[in-house]
Write a structure and sequence with these properties.
By secondary structure, this protein is α/β, with parallel strands linked by helices. It has ten helices and ten strands. The longest helix has 17 residues.
Length: 230
C-alpha cells in the first residue's frame, strides 16, 4: 500500500510509502485525500501527522509516470481535492519532515499547520530547474512563504535549507532525526488542547484569510457566542 496509517492514541500517523522519494502519482494523491477526509470525520482523531518512509518526505509529482500513463489530468484533479482539504479540515494537520520536501512535497509542508523538519533536509519547489513550473505547489507556498522568497524559489528552482526555512517561518523547528517523532508528538498533543472549540476555530482561521474583514469578524463573533453557550 502506498499509504501506511497508524494510530498512537488520538494522533494518526499517515506515512507516504513510495520509496525512495515517495513521489505522488494520481493514485497516491487520491488515497491521501481520502485518508485525510476520513480521519477528519472520525471523532477519535485529535491530530493528523503526515510523514514519509525512508530518507525522503516527498519529492513531488512523479512526472515520468504521469506522462507515460496519461494520468496528468487525474493527478491534477486529485491534487486540487487534496490541497483543498487542508483548510477545510477541522483536525490539526502536522508534517513530520523526515527528509527532502520538494515540489508537491513542499506544497504539503506549506499546507500543514505545524511543521518539524530534520537537519539537512531541503524544502522548496524545484520545477523551474527542470524546465517546468510549480503550477499547483505554488498555491500553498504563496500562502506560507514570504512573497520575495517564494518567487525567488519558484523562478530558480533552488530549495531552501531547513535552517533557512526556519528563518522564513515556513517551519517551526529543525531537529536531529532521532528527535523528530518526539517533537512532532509533542506539538500534536499541544494542538489538541483547544478541544471542540478548535475544531471550529481552525477552519475559521483559514476561511477568514480570504474574506472581507467585516465578514470574518461577523463569523468569528457568531462562533464566539456559540462557544460560550449564548
Amino acid at each position: 500500500m502506498p499509504i501506511d496509517l497508524r494510530r498512537e492514541g488520538r494522533v494518526a500517523w499517515v506515512t507516504l510509502r513510495r520509496p525512495p522519494k515517495n513521489l505522488l502519482d494520481a493514485d497516491l494523491t487520491a488515497r491521501l485525500y481520502r485518508t485525510l477526509v476520513e480521519l477528519d470525520e472520525d471523532a477519535g482523531t485529535g491530530a493528523i501527522v503526515i510523514t514519509g518512509e525512508g530518507e525522503y518526505f516527498c519529492g513531488g509529482a512523479d512526472g515520468p509516470k504521469l506522462r507515460e500513463t496519461g494520468t496528468a489530468k487525474a493527478f491534477a484533479a486529485a491534487a486540487v481535492d487534496l490541497f483543498g482539504q487542508f483548510p477545510r479540515s477541522r483536525t490539526p494537520i502536522l508534517a513530520a519532515v523526515n527528509g527532502d520536501a520538494l515540489a508537491g512535497g513542499f506544497g504539503l509542508v506549506c499546507a500543514a499547520d505545524i511543521v518539524i523538519a530534520v537537519e539537512g533536509s531541503r524544502l522548496g519547489t524545484i520545477e523551474a530547474a527542470l524546465g517546468t513550473w510549480p503550477m499547483i505547489a505554488q498555491v500553498a507556498a504563496a500562502r506560507r512563504v514570504p512573497e520575495k522568497a517564494a518567487i525567488t524559489n519558484a523562478l530558480t528552482g533552488q530549495p531552501f535549507t531547513a535552517a533557512r526555512a526556519l528563518e522564513l517561518g515556513i517551519i517551526d523547528e529543525v531537529v536531529p532525526r532521532e528527535r523528530l517523532r518526539e517533537r512532532v508528538t509533542h506539538y500534536a498533543q499541544l494542538s489538541m488542547a483547544g478541544g471542540a472549540a478548535a475544531l471550529v476555530g481552525r477552519r475559521l482561521f483559514y476561511r477568514g484569510k480570504g474574506q472581507p474583514i467585516d465578514d470574518a469578524l461577523r463569523e468569528g463573533a457568531e462562533a464566539f457566542v456559540e462557544m460560550f453557550g449564548r
